[in-house]
Amino acid sequence: MIIPIRCFSCGKLIAHIYKPYLEAIEKGESAEDAFKSLGIERFCCKRMIVSHVDLIDDLLKFPRLQ
Ligand SMILES: [Zn+2]
């Protein structure tokens, strides 16, 4: 849905990393280099970003159910 603000396991702030990570991947940078340059070291934080599926823009097309 929306990228979580903090890592579920260690509590590190990760929400501000998501867009720069996607931009780095689009430029052709490897995921490992992108994480290094963005300061993400632990695998718990990496899995938060790698496994995230951004669905919020798709869901906003539908009216709210009541
Ligand atoms: Zn973490």
Secondary-structure map:
Elements: H1 18-26, H2 31-38, H3 43-50, H4 56-59
The protein binds zinc ion.
Task: Please explain how this structure is put together.
- The structure is a single chain.
- This protein is mainly α and 66 residues long.
- It has one domain: Orthogonal Bundle (Arc Repressor Mutant, subunit A), CATH 1.10.10.60.
- The chain contains four helices and no strands.
- The radius of gyration is 14 Å and the shape is flat.
- It starts with 17 loop residues before the first helix and ends in a 7-residue tail after the last helix.
- The model has no long low-confidence stretch (mean pLDDT 93).
- Zinc ion binds next to helix 3.
